[in-house]
Amino acid sequence: MAESEPLIFISYASPDRARVDPFVDDLERANFNIWMDHRRLVAGQNWDAEIRRALGRSAVVILFMSENSVDRRGYAQREIKLALLKAEEKLTSDIYIIPVLLDELPAYPDSVAHLHMVRAWESNAAAKIDAAISEQLNQIGQHVRSVQVDNRIRWVERNYKEKWDGLPGYEAEFNIMELSSSEIDNVSDINGIVRGVILKSVSKQREVKFSQNSVDYSFGQSRYMRTNTYSAHCREPVICNHVLSLPYMIHYYNAGAAHGMEHIESYNFTLDPVTMIPGPMDLFQSSNEVFPIIQDICRKNLYKQLLNEFVDSNECMNWICGGTEEWSHFQFYGFSKEGVEFYFPPYQVSCYADGIRTVLVSKWDIHQLIPKHLAEALGWSHLRWQQRPSETAPASG
Fold first, then answer.
1. CATH of the domain at 244
2. Neighbours of 277 (CB within 10 A)
3. Are 315 and 303 spatial neighbours (Cβ–Cβ below 8 Å)?
4. The pTM is what?
5. Model pLDDT, residue 387
6. Is residue 283 within 8 Å of residue 277, measured between CB atoms?
7. What share of the chain is helix, strand, coil (3-state, %, to 5)?
8. At a CB cut-off of 8 Å and minimum separation 6, what does 327 contact?
């Protein structure tokens, strides 16, 4: 199966493996690109980093739920949490989680209770899962084609990978959305800009050839424990009027570390003309005056997201405040139809298990704070003459 094929991630509790495997066998026979831990992970591999990386690339998550997974305090629950976080970050309107019930449960987790369930004991369950995946992939394809036509831009995904075995070794993989347009000048320049930024990180990986270390690493170790890994995978491009965002999920792991790290890094461009939009400090007209506004909105939003993850509310706010003190803490951002999304990596505003946190700052809060040409490129300039809808009211608290 080619790595360019959409990835289908299988989430389940370990005690349910024997019940889940027959469904996965059917999906593989149907030529879906399946990622299931015991089929993809090999001895010594950093399982946490690989699971997060696979979830970051997945087009669909099949969530097998049972008495084991709902009540169990294991990694299956973390996979559910990570998948739901990714669902919140989805850049299209379609839902990508397909829940499959292995047991009849008295109650479902609130986070998935609104989704239609497939019941594994029904005779046509496998066919329903197959049909749901096919429909989701079809919707994704239709959406991409529609976006390309509507915005006069086309893209083709190209995948690249290289590795070298050493002490330590390295492995790097990334994709490039090769853009083209017969109507917009210089769009293909974006390909070179993004590729250049990513290759700078890849070339950094190659430096291990100059610093081999036989004291801390040996060929007796698992290859994965002695290999630095870096991956950069673009999610679907986002086009807001005449502005393009290319959000990349970045994963990296230093050989021997307890776990890998990740963040979302978006490359943002105006399309007419093609220019690269600067970092957040230079995004606004008066950065010193705007910063407290952005900071306050993000802190309130993060507090609402994370409060349940902390025993002490003061600890929650202290962590959030510590990770939002200055403009450099807001370096990862991208545009959406509704505003600007700020991405906070693990450890910045919460613990590693809480993953990447995303905060949407509504266009209604910032459309008069950005330069006039950017507001016009985003299609926001008319907002100054409109009344803000009640459902987008600023956060309070």
1. 3.30.565.40
2. 21
3. no
4. 0.83
5. 87
6. yes
7. 40, 25, 35
8. 279, 280, 281, 287, 291
Helix (H, G, I), strand (E, B) or coil at 108: coil
Amino acid at 343: Y
Report for 50-59, 205-214, 217-226: range of highest mean pLDDT? 205-214
The share of the chain scoring above pLDDT 90, in percent, equals: 49
What the block records as the tokens of 274 is: 């093609």
Long-range contacts of 115-121 (CB under 8 A, 24+ apart): 120/19, 120/23, 120/64
Nearest CA to 82 among 171, 165, 11, 28? Answer: 11
Q: How many domains in the chain?
A: 3
Quick one: 162 and 216 in the same domain? yes
In a domain, 242, yes or no: yes
Alpha-carbon distance of 30 to 24, in angstroms, equals 10
**Residues whose CB falls within 8 Å of the CB of residue 64, separated by 6 or more in sequence, listed in order:** 10, 11, 12, 13, 16, 19, 20, 23, 100, 102, 120
| pLDDT per position as a tens digit, 187-199 | 999 999 999 999 9
User: In this structure, what token pair is assigned to residue 68?
Assistant: 């084991």
Place of tokens 């293909």: 188
Cα–Cα distance measured from residue 198 to residue 267, given in angstroms and rounded to the nearest whole number: 11
Confirm if 148 and 156 have CB atoms less than 8 A apart: no
Q: Which residue, 117, 150, 183, sits at the end of a domain? A: 150
Same domain assignment for residues 207 and 317: no
**Residue that the structure tokens 């050493």 belong to:** 166
